[in-house]
Amino acid sequence: MTEAPSIPDDARPDDVARLVSLTPRRVRQICVEHNIASGKRGLVPVAPVIRAVIEAAKLAHDGDALSAAKARREAARARVFELQALEAEGKVIDIDEHIAVVDEICGIIVAGLTALPARAARNDPRARRKIEDVCDAIRTELAGAAAKRAAELRGTGYHGEKK
Fold this sequence. Notes:
This protein has a two-stranded antiparallel ribbon. By secondary structure, it is mostly helical. It has 2 domains: about 80 residues; about 60 residues. The chain is about 70% helix and about 0% strand. The protein is built from 5 helices and 2 strands; from the N terminus they run βααβααα.
């Protein structure tokens, strides 16, 4: 087994920088930030500098995560304001309100289709039956399409009958 190389107690900032893969300037900045005084001939204590480098890296990582969280929060706030502005302009409506309007219109159509055979073929039972069959098919198609779109708009998917 090979023996680990010995690390001196003090070293030049350039040597420490090579050891920790930083620039000599950044090593000197970290020394100043963490109040690590250089000793004789500009040498710095290696162990405290390495601990300071690790601490600085942890702080930078935590800061990145915090910055990302703040950016997501600000983006969400901006989206809320954007949606509120669109709603105020009448360009967006609540999905349940939209579905209620469509349901009301479909109700009027279904009521008209239900009355149509009696109005159109009052005295002709065969014609009335044919018209009823056509109207029933239209009502079934309308109900299926409305249910499918409502489910899609609510984001639940469509679980009705397959054609």
